[in-house]
Amino acid sequence: MSARKITRIAFLSAIMYVSKALLEFLPNVELVSMLIIVYGLVFGREVFLIILVFNLFELVQWGFGVWWISYLYSWPLLGLAVLALRRRAGEEFLVWAVVSGLFGLAFGSLFAAAWLPVDVSYAFSYWVSGLPWDVAHCVSNFILTAVLGKPLYRLLTRVKKEDERL
Prior knowledge:
By secondary structure, the protein is mostly helical. It has helices at 3-22, 32-43, 46-62, 66-89, 93-113, 120-129, 131-165.
């Protein structure tokens, strides 16, 4: 892997991490979902390395917990969805806003799934008790992706083209 690619992965992961840290005071409002969508559209499978580094940043800051296990599969699932849908949806950011919103709505159930091996009833109650927060996550993901997704996509596409010329 080239130094340029390693630097790009580190930089984009850091942007994801810092954006999440800056918005932590707002419950269930984050740019990570939108960034994963845009990164997946622009950089393809490289999005999984970006997610991995982001997850490691989170581990260093917050320490190990069941929440971190859910990060290991939740964020990559969004990356897989982007790669599976990108040929069909292309640059239609209303579609990506819906995908991001649905991911926000499903995030609590994905999080609760980490508790299934421990206690199914706890996992279910964890998910149900968090449904209002999942709705807030859905709405904020939809709005943020609808407003910021396309401009960021265009910017990163331009940066990638310039980078490829070097």
